[in-house]
Automatic annotation (TrEMBL):
SUPFAM superfamilies given in the database record: PIN domain-like
Annotated ranges, domain PIN: 2-118
Name the record gives this protein: PIN domain-containing protein
Pfam family, one: PIN
Keyword Nuclease in record: yes
InterPro entries the record matches: PIN-like_dom_sf (IPR029060), PIN_dom (IPR002716), PINc/VapC_TA_RNase (IPR051749)
GO MF, one example: hydrolase activity
Organism of provenance: Candidatus Collierbacteria bacterium GW2011_GWA2_42_17
The entry's keywords: Hydrolase, Magnesium, Metal-binding, Nuclease, Toxin-antitoxin system
Gene3D superfamilies: 5'-nuclease
Top-level taxon: Bacteria
Amino acid sequence: MKKIIIDSSIIIEFLRTGKGLWLRLVEEKEKNTIELIVPAVVVAELWSGKSVNDSKKERYLKRMLEITIVKELSENEAKMAGKIRRNFGVSLADAMVASCAMINKKAELVTLNVKDFVKIKGVKIFKTND
């Protein structure tokens, strides 16, 4: 089963529009072809957003996270994230997401912010067939 690391941009897109790649990922998960993994730092990013002040969107977010695996940051991932931030100049949150994708060697990262991650060697970006 393919492991998919989800960046906050995918979930934010769905919370804002009710559309997007999230729906396709859920369909694939229901077919048992992929496993959805959300790094813990993404959970923090999502809960820090103003959109979850809306109780309906908060409920959506809770349900969305229930069908994913929330991945805690290991010490090795933390060290790697520090190196990624230092070497590539990305935000700490993006560095943590990238390290999660890199440690899980067969995992692919799904994001709407491809430009933030393509420069990081070793991160596999999920390709859509659109």
